[in-house]
Design goal:
TIM Barrel, two-stranded parallel ribbon, 14 strands, binds 6-O-phosphono-beta-D-glucopyranose
């Protein structure tokens, strides 16, 4: 039993995303999205990074998103499992192209709306509050091929139409919304993050920051629309979080870490504070970036979010000498390997205190409630002779991080809730693997699309159920 407590009404649950769980990639009139073009195997990284253009599917590739874990057909069973654990919140995303298959239609696809209405009703039936991301790594492909995705200002209009449809169609069912998942990932993984593909002669920084501007204006605009449609709506931004530590106490290393933090925080600085941060003009100058803005943008950006959400897997580390050779992108964002923390099999750091540090920094900076909407350990699970999965490593990771979050709450930070990542095993975003598992529920499917897709409770399932029942006291 922990001495630390969680507030009454704290939301406990887990997270999935449409692009990694639903499958049904053309079902119900859905259009192709960016993630549907990203294969498993050697071409995965170049495509994700926007360095290799893939606008058509290939017969000889395996695309993990096409069937994923078939949440599209199994959501009732999956939501029942979440209810059995006692979830009070379930985070998922809406696939934009189920509602607008091409992205630029004027009217939505009724079948797509009906699907999500059923999903959210199923949640409500079990007393689970949906937390819904409007765009989680899945831009409709037609918007990429016809408009160049977020590099084009017209995306603001398309996204606003789609978002309004969601707020109106799911009014009364969904109250918590996130605009863009891990918005800062646009810098690190431009195609999967924002549908960007680069030409050889262009400055990628210019393209990325212009796209970022369009996303930031779109995010602020739909925050305003959400409040207009229903003043009860709560809208959050979403950061791929994790503070940078300086490699040493050398002032140059401390400065390098500050700069790396700002690179990521830039996005939510705008979303949470309503204007470009003071450091941005100098950064843009150094990168040769000139942002084209419309006269109304400054006013639109003032529509700030209600809360700040973030994912946290690990802290990061930077030095003045950091470069391509000595850093790694194990955790998507490039970092030096911190010798003081443990790592997962995939090289992702494990640093629970880093969560408390990150949360304190974010609350000091924004003074808005926080929502930890992704946290977890990607690990290989083995089914033992008795047909059970003893995932004690996952329990210990989550226990330590929940404890760190409780400490952050004890530091005075208001926290709305906690959704562990991949509460049911799903496709890994970075590698496309199924074998990198995060769930309390095992899904019988391998890295090549083989398996029954049957669900099975792991040891962590029973542990998390107990954590929720005790409102975080029994860790
Ligand atoms: C976050 C994403 O980056 O991390 C998720 O929002 C992703 O989509 C998660 O799945 C874990 O990363 P991975 O690569 O292990 O799936």
């Amino acid at each position: 039993m922990s001495e630390l407590t969680f507030p009454a009404g704290f939301l406990w649950g887990g997270a999935l995303a449409a692009n990694q769980s639903e499958g049904g990639y053309l079902a119900g009139g859905k259009g192709l999205t960016t993630v549907d073009m990203i294969p498993h195997g050697p071409h995965r990284m170049p495509v994700k990074l926007g360095l290799e253009q893939r606008f058509t599917l290939r017969e000889d590739e395996y695309y993990p998103s096409h069937q994923a874990i078939d949440f599209y057909h199994r959501y009732k069973e999956d939501i029942a499992l979440m209810a059995e654990m006692g979830f009070s919140v379930f985070r998922t995303s809406i696939a934009w192209s189920r509602l607008y298959p091409n992205g630029d239609e004027l009217q939505p696809n009724a079948e797509g709306i009906a699907f999500y209405r059923d999903v959210f009703r199923e949640c409500k039936k079990h007393g689970i509050e949906p937390l819904v991301t409007l765009c989680h790594f899945d831009v409709p492909m037609h918007l990429v091929t016809e408009y160049g995705s977020w590099r084009n200002r017209k995306m603001i209009e398309f996204f606003a139409r789609y978002a309004r449809t969601c707020f109106e169609a799911f009014d009364g069912l969904v109250k918590y919304w996130l605009t863009f998942n891990e918005i800062n990932i646009l810098l690190h993984s431009p195609f999967s993050g924002a549908g960007l593909v680069f030409e050889a002669d262009e400055n990628p920084e210019q393209v990325k920051y212009q796209a970022a501007h369009h996303e930031l204006v779109a995010s602020a605009l739909v925050t305003r629309i959400a409040h207009e449609v229903n003043p009860q709506n709560q809208v959050g931004c979403m950061l791929a979080g994790g503070n940078f530590y300086p490699w040493s106490s050398k002032p140059e290393d401390v400065w390098a870490a500050l700069e790396k933090d700002r690179e990521n925080l830039f996005f939510i600085d705008v979303q949470a504070r309503g204007a470009y941060p003071s450091y941005s003009a100098r950064v843009f100058r150094e990168k040769g970036v000139k942002i084209e803005m419309a006269p109304e943008d400054t006013e639109i950006l003032k529509n700030t979010v209600d809360f700040v959400s973030f994912s946290y897997y690990a802290s990061r580390c930077a030095s003045a000498e950091m470069n391509e050779q000595n850093s790694s992108a194990a955790n998507v964002v490039k970092s030096l390997t911190n010798p003081h923390i443990k790592r997962s099999e995939w090289g992702w750091g494990i640093d629970p205190l880093g969560l408390r540090i990150t949360m304190n920094m974010m609350y000091d900076r924004y003074q808005k409630p926080l929502f930890l909407v992704e946290n977890g350990l990607g690990a290989r699970d083995e089914i033992n002779a008795d047909g059970e999965i003893h995932d004690d490593y996952r329990i210990s990771y989550l226990r330590e991080h929940i404890h760190a979050m409780a400490q952050a709450i004890d530091d005075g930070i208001p926290v709305i809730g906690y959704t562990t990542w991949g509460c049911i095993d799903l496709v890994a975003a970075s590698t496309g693997e199924m074998s990198k598992r995060y769930g309390f529920v095992y899904v019988d499917r391998d890295d090549h699309g083989q398996g029954s897709l049957n669900r099975m409770r792991k040891k962590s399932f029973w542990w998390y159920k107990k954590v929720i029942a005790s409102n975080g006291r029994d860790l």
